[in-house]
Design a protein that fits this description.
Length: 418
Amino acid sequence: MTSEIKGFASLKIPSFRNFLSARFFLTLAIQMQAVAVGWQVYQITHDPFALGIIGLAEAIPFLSLVLFAGHWADMYQRRKLAITAVSLFALCAMSLFLIAIYPDTLPEHHPEYLFYAIISVTGVARAIAGPAVSALLPQMLKRELYANGAAWNSSFWQIASVGGPAIGGLLYGFAGKETTYLIAFILVLISLFFFFRLPVFPPARLGKEPISSSLKAGLRFVFNQPVVLGAISLDLFAVLFGGAVALLPVFADEILHVGPEGLGILRAAPSVGAVLTALIVTRHSPMVNSGKILLLFVALFGLSMIGFALSTSLVLSFILLLLSGAFDGISVLIRSTIMQLFTPDDMRGRVASVNSIFIGSSNEIGAFESGLAAKFLGLVPSVVFGGCMTLVCTGLVYKLAPSLKKMNLRDHVLDPNI
């Protein structure tokens, strides 16, 4: 890899720096808000299944809209769609703040339902933002900078994912939910400012292709690309079964007894690991034997989840969650680079929307699965089961997707030195 495209190469581009800033502040706000909402709803209900319902409330509108959002991202101005979505996020953050300072607005019976309603609006915002933001990133970079840009994008996102839960948990514990939601709202507004600073790119496609034909083309492209389909499927099942984030409030309260402050630390742990690996891969990208590396690290992610489920120590739990984030960070980088390299620009929105159905929604559906499994299997057995299923799914992809197993990303980049 040449020194020109290693290290800080992509950060020299002003529009890319604004993009990273916009996504950083938005992610920081969303992560803070997620910790606060999860803890508040659990304190109201004392039911782990309620935490799964939070994920389902976001996933249903997301899944209903995201394919259409992918079509819009290819037919219309992506920056404008991103701004619309972030404005919806701001509306949700403001609503949570107002509920916090006026608690009498909560219904007497089932007050958690109001939180589900607000989170459902964030599902709409995520559906619009996902394809538009994903398709914006490669428009700012040359092809040979995709891997470097993906590493920095992952680094900034993971840093926000570290800071968000930690800040959210500490603020909730020491300053109260009102302050937590207010700061989250302010951070969304800062993100909106940076999205307005992005350049205006023309729509990737001109004309008015029927939406049904457009959506079919996006689906056909993904299912005709074995490497893309294999990578997306692997992530889907790993996140669907392997994640324990939705149940962290229960682990913090009933297993580790560490309160909201400890919850923030646990929520931040995976991103600490992901930040460390993302910073490393800005200098040493896994461009050779990429498919085998992807499969190996997803399997290690599943093993770390099993270990976390069995831990009763805060320190050990933190280390295992950190390792899970490190393993997932490598696989995220490889998957995102695959999506950028294998997708033509006029298909990016629709392919991103299909990717979001497989991956983006799997976080929320995975949260619902975790809550449901915890209700019927018990807290610890449900997470052990999820980690085992991740290992099974990795083995199946290894057998059924030979092109992914043999993939070298270096072969698909223009510069032969990469």
